[in-house]
Amino acid sequence: MSGMFALNSGDAAIVLEPREGRAPAWRHWGAAVDVAGLPPLADTRGAASFSFDEDVPFDSAPVGGLGWFGPAAVELRDATGAGMVVSWTNSDVARTDDGLVICLDDTVQGVRLVQTIAADGLGGFRMGATLTNIGPAPIQLDWLASAVLPLPGDAAQLVSWRGRHNAELVQKVEPLPAHAWQREGRRGIAGHGGPAGLFVLGEGAGHATGPVHALQLCWSGDSRIRVERDDEGFFIAMAGARLAPGEVVLAPGASWHAPDVLAAWSSHGRNGATAVFHAAVRAMVRWPGGTMPPRKVHLNSWEACYFDHDEARILALAEAAAQIGIERFVLDDGWFVGRNDDTAGLGDWTPDPAKYPQGLAPLAHRIIATGMEFGLWVEPEMVNPDSDLYRAHPGWALALPDRARPTARNQSVLDLSQAAVRDYLFDCLDHLLRDVPISYLKWDHNRDLAPSGGAAQVRGLYDLLARLRAAHPGVEIEACAGGGGRSDAGMAPYVHRYWTSDNIDAVSRVDIQRGFLAFLPPEMMGSHVGASPAHATGRAQALAFRAAVAMPGHFGVEMDPRTLDAQERDELAGWIGFHRTWRDLLHSGQVWLGEGPDGLVWQAQGNAQAQLLFAIRRAPAADRRPQPLRLPHLAGQGACKVRLLRLAGGTGGHAAPTAPLHRAMVDAPVTLAGNWLAHAGLPMPPMNAQTVAIFHIEAG
Ligand code: GLA
Predict the structure, then answer these.
(1) Are 534 and 276 in contact (CB under 8 A)?
(2) Is 444 an annotated catalytic residue?
(3) What is the DSSP letter of 360?
(4) Quick one: which atom of ligand 1 is closest to the CA of 377?
(5) Is the CB of 502 within 6 Å of ligand 1?
(6) Residue 482 Cβ < 6 Å to ligand 1
(7) Separation CA 375–CA 321 (nearest Å)
């Protein structure tokens, strides 16, 4: 038979089988396949004992109650609160230019579900779902999966991330569950564990090879991602926004759109799935002018002076920044009225006359005159109870009647579902952007939500951001939530950068950044050179090591360059120049991550023609001599010209010995075969702890 709905996307495919009056049945999500001659599912399935007489296979929109016992795509209640059994009575599947639209009705319950699948041609599928009340009575929506997908029964490992402030994106690898695995976000933001997403590795799969399925929800609020073992032996994955009971009540005719989910499959391991994610996220970003300009090197004022600043101090800092090659100066928290510490001021978005008597415009003009852009920190969704805004509008904060209003960092959250609140914030920001030549906003969010604002809070945020972007299309925005609490693809249509973590300690940053890069592309990863000792951890690290670890992302400086001696300032300027030389290569292509012997981790960024390789040693080596580093992604390359650009580490302790090859590689490239580099490995120089070897590898 065919008549199958087979969608190809790069090396990947989805195959669904149409069924009269039912949701299409899942046949495949994985490698590209040929469906010619494929028999219908019914012909491949004999009867099973203790099963329904009419087969109930896994389909695109499984619903419980009439013979499906796995997880449901939709959970509804009627106006009395009773659970509604949904069963599709009509099904209509239409092909679109890039995919499918599946329209399912339950005419008994008066419910319509429209599922969309769009192939991006690169291995990715973007999937969405909208539920509409087509009946006469209100319906309460408890759950709507953005997508429900099959995973192979022999999947071996599940990779996910958890985290907290200052320790974002801690990777966890575990076997697939015997029953079910679930990760829920309930803090109102994606959170410090990173986006709602996971990677499922086939037997033997790793960074470079093997089949990998991955999901990532484009959503900045509460989420649920679940993997459940079916009693037929395969696994079912699903993802969606987590809704509170009673949160979404659909009047007749009303709809609820689930956030989209990105589904990636690759036979090239985790790096292949990551490349699919990066392409999908890059397609979502709206750059001023349409294309990504080179990512300007930042100086962010936060750790240089915290709340303690005024016009003179910021000008002096900005001048020092301009002298070392900084291209964008971002004035962080503390500039607005009443904001001398974190107890007051949020909500009152006018410059503090004590610190900036003439407002911010003269300061911004002076900064721009040095050749830099001017950026500003804001935290629009928040309000301190000690603010004029809160005193005037206590009802604008999220709160429950007759309940305490728990603050975090002394602040409450504004209710963005209220149009008046969004209008107020739009006006504040619009005025600022009109009055002051600001080309960049760092948009912060420094607490979890309690009480919850639910999905309406997230949609209110998106609405505000969209309005602001439309009014000020030249302004770039950075998403931040106490460091990396908002690194999710839901923000990608509105922002251009994520602040990855308040922990700038370069050893900590290695894993945080690797977690970030699993989902989001490097040009959006804010990565700064901080002070030593690091403010978050107290650990001291050499400037070269800090700079090399920050290098692959959107580079910046988070300290006062005047605290460095002249030699170190020159060194920092040198690293800024290094970044400017290589950023186009670092930010335009693929990211390959890998793990080497003896605790070494590595990443390469670029393309088949040219790439930079970062071999990172955090802890002292245990082996007498370094083992060669295998770079599997170069297997198909011919000759490769390899140059050692920098050995970025400290100068204390015994000097690491050097080898003639590496001394030669500094001066001129050494040519090695790609398959040698892939299978036998690049000879590594000995490295002390906290050293990064940066190589340039060019086809040739
Ligand atoms: C958060 C951010 C920091 C800084 C402070 C300001 O913690 O992550 O970078 O902007 O807020 O209060």
Answers:
(1) no
(2) yes
(3) S
(4) 10
(5) yes
(6) yes
(7) 14
Record the tokens describing residue 699, joined without a space: 């086809």
Strands 601-606 and 610-617: antiparallel
Q: What is the pLDDT of residues 608-658, one digit of tens each?
A: 999 999 999 999 999 999 999 999 999 999 999 999 999 999 888 898 889
* Interval between CA 329 and ligand 1 midpoint (Å): 15
User: How far does residue 209's CA lie from ligand 1's centre (Å)?
Assistant: 38
**Which of 120, 143, 165, 163 lies closest to 226, judged by CA?**
143
DSSP E strands, 426-510: 440-443, 476-479, 497-499
Q: Read off the pLDDT of residues 452-499 as tens digits, 9 standing for 90 and up.
A: 999 999 999 999 999 999 999 999 999 999 999 999 999 999 999 999
pLDDT (tens digit, 9 = 90+) per residue, 212-263? 999 999 999 999 999 999 999 999 999 999 999 999 999 999 999 999 999 9
Q: How far apart are the C-alpha atoms of 197 and 110, rounded to whole Å?
A: 32
- Residue 176's Cα: distance from chain center in Å? 23
Structure tokens at 175: 């076997």
Res 148: pLDDT: 98
Q: Which of 335, 444, 447 to mutate to test the pocket of ligand 1 (most atoms within 8 A of CB)?
A: 444
Query: Structure tokens of 196?
Result: 């709602």
- Average pLDDT along the chain: 97
233: exposed, middle or buried (C-beta count within 10 Å: 0-12, 13-18, 19+)?
A: exposed
Helices (H), 298-386: 302-305, 311-323, 361-369
Collapsing DSSP to helix, strand or coil, 56 comes out as: coil
Answer yes or no: pTM beyond 0.85: yes
Q: Amino acid identity, residue 172? A: K
Distance, C-alpha 616 to centroid of its chain: 23
With the most atoms of ligand 1 within 8 angstroms of its CB, the residue from 502, 512, 557 to mutate is 502
Which positions ≥6 away from 48 have C-beta within 8 Å?
A: none
Cα–Cα nearest to 504, from 435, 544, 559: 559
Q: Is-catalytic flag, 502?
A: yes
- CA–CA distance, 264 with 518 (Å, rounded to integer): 12
